[in-house]
């Protein structure tokens, strides 16, 4: 199996290298063929591996492929840990990635228009884009398949790098470079915590290998670290690692980069900033469940951060008018749901929602992209409307995505989200009540913003200019096929996967269980005990407040943005005005950006300026660097004169050396 | 002496090189002027065969042959392999230069092959006599090669200096050997080591001998203050000869040092550690500082060599298995770097023009971006920038030094490396940030050279990122 796993990882890398370095030579068709072939191969093999795990009882693989170096007994290796959790992630990542690859052919077809005339950076941009997304697939696979913290960190940073490259892909736009930089800097802060967490693991466990760390964890559960007057080691490690996850998975207050990342081309918003990379934090915490289970403080922290993100970011989505930003805030909110599930020790539910979300959110993004293509890259939903008639496939798939997102009974999102809420209701940790309340209210918010967008875009009167409307038509097959392919799991995957993943403890294989839950934290037990099949689960949900809220939101949205808006087109603006200061607060995104910009960015710049002027220029440049450079230069000038060119001088030097050594070593 | 054909088995690589040299000599006599390139082909084939034979007869337990004068052990296998591979690159790079100047003649190949034979004998020696034999064969071939361009007065001057100083250096080495022979009554390493172990260190004659021997080794490496020949020879000799002189013989010199100091005089380690320490500090310091003042790139690389020799000595003086392995790793990878650097200089040269000034590299990126990238890799590697192999080598050597408690020495070495980074990076600056000179023509090079140079440059990157294989080989030699 090792060769299969290697192939899965390396095939996208090969594609990325070929398309990246030889893009000019192999042309556009060559570039997308080679990358799709690579990712396609990975997808097929990943699905096969997943199938083996489901039906053939494939044993867990945990082994090193290459030992990079050994230092002081600590091994730095490239290795794979493939169990059912990994297999599920691999299949999800490669499948969504493949869909996005295909979709990109259509989306980037006329990318030349996005660059200024004759811009050097715009040359071969199509091939470069394919190279990046293939490279991303490789990095993400390295991340999820890692069997040690070093490789996890490698994948973590590599996906961050590609994310940065792709957000700023249209590098001639200031807003894009700004957004790229912002994503990079915010993630640096999170990654610093992550790195400290890994360092703490290395220091106290003496190894970076997952299996060894997990095995040693219970023994170290009581260890105290002399920091801030003594904290438990597990709390320290888990909180630090989670800070990394907060950066990558865009949790409050590190969420600020994700909405801005929408500056990147839409396919990567779907792939990186919705389906896969941002869920790396969720995956990581689930993978580390044996550590998190040992610290209730850390779990509470996770719970509160997640719930806060889930609710308050959803609210911001209500006042956005950019189609991609609405979906972006929705992603933040959904990530919050997953994180809350982790905090409630319902790791399986979090990962389950991760998977269903990957499909329907990628679908929503790609559908949004399809609309964006059709209206010539205008992203303002106030200038859309009535698109349903012109783009039937996009419309239908977007409707499916929205229904899945709000958790409409029977759709995949319904199962995962209801399971999360059911689990959070059971948690007894500090902050559990707060989280349960916010998540339940969040359902209403989700329904409101999803269907506000849906009705504004697809229904009502067309509000775009005449020229655009005349050219409005369904997008080509390379765009619609991925939509359909993603719509299928968005509807069905929940129904089929909930029972094995949440109820039957499918993740455990043999005596290896990737997701470990302490009995006193087992919030999914309640769900398990009252399980009578999917049908009963759906029927039971019909009476719960959660569903009332979702349907209520849906109906309210239909009333306002469809029925009333048909007669009063300015109802949306009026509603926003009605909100008064609340609307302004939401439109300012609670002021996070202003605060960061003014205090953190401004402060850092001021500090940097001071150090640069006083320290760098005066002290270091003028004094130390130029000073020592001058003296070294003088020294070199003098010493070179030793080389006179006369043979007898050289011979004398040797004799002097001989006599010198003699004197020192024979006489002493 | 009783002759046994089994004796010949372990020295098959040497025999292959010798046969090739003999064939080249004969073929050169009869071959037509137009078909001279056949010699080149024959040489390459001979070297490839020798590499293959090294692999075939290598491995397995240590074998002593020729009455204990020659040894075949993992050290010899690995060093022979490295010497042969580097030499192969040398001949590939040298061909266009020689052809353009009408100097593609049998003498170059014959002398080159004999020098390689000398190196192979050195690293496989198990007695002082064999070592000296190999050393002189190498040195005599090189003296002649330095003066190979008969019309060049600079070449003749360099050869003269090299010869006189080389004779002095060899003389000292021989004098040292004679003293050790006097004190122990044997020239064979094993017997010498045994004698030393029984009689102890009191004998002052031994220390006398040791000083002379260290000077001989220092001279062959080019360590300060026995380095004076190096810049003048590098500057004066034809570039292909410098290529030959500056790469593989360093590996052989490493073999010489290990054979003499560790195999033979291992129990005097406390004494030679101090001597090497002085030479190492002087070499690292002087080499890096004076290189800055050089405008001639061959001289600059000469001083760079001196500083690298200092680093190799750091690993040796650690006196631990780990240190020897690190020094070996450093030596082999340095030889690959040096081959790349001089290879680029040859590629930059053309009929009637030799790239000798640093300015000749100006704007290389615009003339040929691939070669520019390779040269940049070589320079970064020499400067010790991660993830290139030069960094790994320095790291390993410094680690070995720190392990024996010489932290100050590591700090000194690092400071001088930083100073040294300046002149390497200056080359990179010329390559990428300056415009080429007006009359610089496009670089013409054959496919073989391009492939060899690409392998050479990328090897620095590959070995830097994946050092484990080579390092494991080096460590297995010393059982670390």
UniProtKB/TrEMBL annotation, chain A:
Its main location: membrane. Gene3D superfamilies: 1.20.5.2700. The keyword Heme does not apply. Keywords: Membrane, Transmembrane, Transmembrane helix. Residues 68-113 form the NADH-Ubiquinone oxidoreductase (complex I) chain 5 N-terminal domain. It is found in: Endomembrane system; Membrane. This is NADH-quinone oxidoreductase subunit L. It comes from Marichromatium bheemlicum. The gene is nuoL.
From TrEMBL, chain B:
It catalyses: a quinone + NADH + 5 H(+)(in) = a quinol + NAD(+) + 4 H(+)(out). GO terms for molecular function: oxidoreductase activity. Residues 125-419 form the NADH:quinone oxidoreductase/Mrp antiporter transmembrane domain. NDH-1 is composed of 14 different subunits. Subunits NuoA, H, J, K, L, M, N constitute the membrane sector of the complex. HAMAP family: NDH1_NuoN_1. It is a multi-pass membrane protein. The lineage of its organism: Bacteria, Pseudomonadati, Pseudomonadota, Gammaproteobacteria, Chromatiales. InterPro entries: NADH-Q_OxRdtase_suN/2 (IPR010096), ND/Mrp_TM (IPR001750). This is NADH-quinone oxidoreductase subunit N.
């Amino acid at each position: 199996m090792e060769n299969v796993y290697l192939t899965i990882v390396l095939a996208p890398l090969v594609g990325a290298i070929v398309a990246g370095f030889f893009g000019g030579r192999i042309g556009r068709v060559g570039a997308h063929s080679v990358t799709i072939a690579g990712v396609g191969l990975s997808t097929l093999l990943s699905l096969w591996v997943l199938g083996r795990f489901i039906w053939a009882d494939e044993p867990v693989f945990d082994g090193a492929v290459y030992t990079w170096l050994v230092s002081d007994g600590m091994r730095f290796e490239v290795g794979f840990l493939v169990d059912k959790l990994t297999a599920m992630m691999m299949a999800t990542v490669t499948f969504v990635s493949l869909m996005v690859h295909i979709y990109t052919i259509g989306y980037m077809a006329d990318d030349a228009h996005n660059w200024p005339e004759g811009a050097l950076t715009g040359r071969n941009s199509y091939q470069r884009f394919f190279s990046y997304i293939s490279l991303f697939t490789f990095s993400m696979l390295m991340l999820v398949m890692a069997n040690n913290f070093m490789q996890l960190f490698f994948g973590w940073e590599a996906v961050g790098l590609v994310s940065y490259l792709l957000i700023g892909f249209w590098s001639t736009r200031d807003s894009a470079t700004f957004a790229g930089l912002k994503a990079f800097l915010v993630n640096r802060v999170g990654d610093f915590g992550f790195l400290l967490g890994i360092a703490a693991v290395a220091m106290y466990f003496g190894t970076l290998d997952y299996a060894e760390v997990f095995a040693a964890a219970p023994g170290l559960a009581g260890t105290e670290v002399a920091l801030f007057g003594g904290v438990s080691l597990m709390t320290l490690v888990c909180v630090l690692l989670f800070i990394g996850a907060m950066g990558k998975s865009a949790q409050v207050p590190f969420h600020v980069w994700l909405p801005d990342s929408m500056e990147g081309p839409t396919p990567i918003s779907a792939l990186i900033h919705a389906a896969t990379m941002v869920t790396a934090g969720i995956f990581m915490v689930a993978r580390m469940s044996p550590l998190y289970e040992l610290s209730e403080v850390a779990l509470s922290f996770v719970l509160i951060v997640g719930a806060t993100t889930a609710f308050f970011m959803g609210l911001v989505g209500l006042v956005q008018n950019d189609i991609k930003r609405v979906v972006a805030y929705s992603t933040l909110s959904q990530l919050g749901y997953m994180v809350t599930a982790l905090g409630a020790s319902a790791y399986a539910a979090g990962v389950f929602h991760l998977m269903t979300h990957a499909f329907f959110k990628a679908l929503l993004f790609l559908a949004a992209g399809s609309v964006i293509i059709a209206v010539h890259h205008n992203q303002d939903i106030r200038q859309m409307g009535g698109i349903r008639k012109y783009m039937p496939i996009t419309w239908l798939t977007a409707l499916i995505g929205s229904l899945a997102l709000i958790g409409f009974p029977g759709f995949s999102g319904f199962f995962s989200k209801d399971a999360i809420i059911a689990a959070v209701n059971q948690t007894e940790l500090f902050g559990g009540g707060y989280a349960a309340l916010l998540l339940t209210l969040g359902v209403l918010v989700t329904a409101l913003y999803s269907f506000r967008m849906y009705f504004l875009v697809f229904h009502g009167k067309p509000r775009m200019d005449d020229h655009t409307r005349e050219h409005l038509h369904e997008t080509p097959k390379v765009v619609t096929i991925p939509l359909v392919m993603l719509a299928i799991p968005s509807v069905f995957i929940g129904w089929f996967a909930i029972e094995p993943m949440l109820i039957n403890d499918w993740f455990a294989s043999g005596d290896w269980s990737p997701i470990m839950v302490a009995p006193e934290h087992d919030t999914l037990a309640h769900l398990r005990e009252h399980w009578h099949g999917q049908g009963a689960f759906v029927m039971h949900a019909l009476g719960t407040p959660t569903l009332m809220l979702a349907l209520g939101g849906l109906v309210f949205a239909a009333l306002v943005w469809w029925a009333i808006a048909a007669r009063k087109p300015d109802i949306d603006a009026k509603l926003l005005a009605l909100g008064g200061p609340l609307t302004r607060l939401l439109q300012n995104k609670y002021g996070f950006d202003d605060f960061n910009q003014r205090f953190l960015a401004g402060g850092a710049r001021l500090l940097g300026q001071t150090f640069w002027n006083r320290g760098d220029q005066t002290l270091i440049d003028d004094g130390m660097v130029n000073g020592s450079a001058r003296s070294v230069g003088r020294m070199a000038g003098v010493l070179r004169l030793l080389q006179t060119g006369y043979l007898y001088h050289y011979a004398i030097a040797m004799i002097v050396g001989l006599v010198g050594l003699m004197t020192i070593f024979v006489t002493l | 002496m009783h002759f046994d054909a089994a004796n010949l088995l372990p020295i098959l690589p040497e025999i292959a090189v010798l046969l090739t040299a003999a064939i080249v000599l004969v073929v050169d006599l009869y071959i037509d002027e137009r078909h001279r390139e056949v010699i080149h082909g024959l040489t390459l084939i001979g070297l490839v065969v020798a590499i293959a034979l090294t692999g075939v007869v290598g491995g397995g337990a240590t074998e002593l042959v020729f009455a204990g004068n020659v040894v075949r052990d993992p050290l010899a296998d690995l060093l022979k392999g490295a010497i042969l591979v580097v030499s192969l690159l040398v001949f590939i790079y040298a061909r266009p230069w020689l052809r353009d100047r009408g100097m593609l003649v049998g003498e170059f190949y014959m002398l080159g092959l004999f020098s390689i034979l000398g190196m192979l004998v050195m690293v496989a020696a198990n007695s002082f006599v064999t070592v000296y034999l190999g050393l002189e064969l190498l040195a005599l071939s090189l003296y002649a090669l330095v003066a190979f361009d008969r019309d060049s007065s600079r070449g003749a001057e360099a050869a003269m200096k090299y010869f006189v100083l080389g004779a002095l250096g060899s003389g000292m080495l021989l004098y040292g050997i004679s003293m050790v022979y006097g004190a122990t009554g044997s020239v064979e390493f094993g017997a010498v080591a045994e004698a030393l172990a029984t009689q102890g260190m009191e004998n002052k004659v031994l220390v006398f001998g040791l000083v002379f021997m260290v000077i001989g080794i220092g001279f062959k490496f080019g360590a300060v203050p026995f380095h004076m020949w190096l810049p003048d020879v590098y500057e004066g000799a034809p570039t292909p000869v410098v290529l030959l002189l500056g790469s593989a013989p360093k590996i052989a010199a490493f073999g010489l040092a290990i054979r003499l100091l560790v195999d033979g005089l291992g129990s005097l380690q406390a004494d030679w550690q101090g001597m090497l320490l002085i030479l190492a500090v002087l070499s690292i310091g002087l080499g890096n500082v004076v290189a800055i003042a050089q405008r001639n790139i061959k001289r600059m690389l000469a001083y760079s060599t001196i500083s690298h020799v200092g680093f190799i000595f750091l690993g040796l003086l650690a006196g631990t298995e780990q240190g020897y392995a690190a020094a070996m790793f450093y030596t082999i990878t340095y030889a690959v770097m040096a081959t790349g650097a001089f290879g680029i200089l040859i590629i930059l040269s053309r009929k009637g023009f030799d790239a000798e000034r640093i300015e000749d590299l100006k704007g290389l990126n615009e003339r040929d971006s691939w070669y520019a990238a390779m040269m940049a890799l070589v320079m970064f590697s020499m400067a010790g920038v991660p993830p290139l192999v030069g960094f790994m080598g320095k790291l390993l050597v410094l680690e070995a030094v720190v392990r024996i408690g010489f932290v100050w020495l590591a700090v000194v070495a690092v400071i001088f490396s930083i100073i040294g980074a300046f002149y390497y990076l200056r080359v990179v600056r010329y390559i990428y940030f300056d415009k080429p000179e007006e009359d610089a023509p496009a670089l013409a090079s054959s496919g073989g050279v391009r492939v060899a140079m690409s392998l050479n440059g990328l090897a620095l990157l590959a070995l830097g990122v994946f050092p484990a294989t080579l390092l494991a080989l080096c460590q297995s030699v010393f059982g670390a």
